[in-house]
Request: fold
Amino acid sequence: MIILLNPEHAARLLGLTPAVLAAHRRAGTGPQCLRLTPRARPLYRLSDLALWATQLSSRASVGCARAYDAAIAGETDHDVLRQIAQQGADEGEAQFAASLDTSTRH
Reply:
């Protein structure tokens, strides 16, 4: 199943603002996007967001990975996917902070 998100939902899922996501798109450094026509708004596959996020940060990658797993399992409600992603992002951020804390103790 392919889940497509508009730029606002994609940005929220990644923990970015739509403007930052657009800047990444223009610079060619963002996740792959699709356009149905040359003038259409960009759309993002959830799998592309998860891939891009894993290349950036553990916080975003945990959130996207959780949302991607839920989508594969059949969840299609974008609000539920965003909630899953946010919970995963919060968990990823806590793991990252804990890893920093333990690395500074050595």
Summary: The CA atoms of residues 43 and 65 lie 18 Å apart. The mean pLDDT is 77. The longest helix spans residues 78-105. The helical segments are 7-14, 18-27, 46-54, 58-72, 78-105.
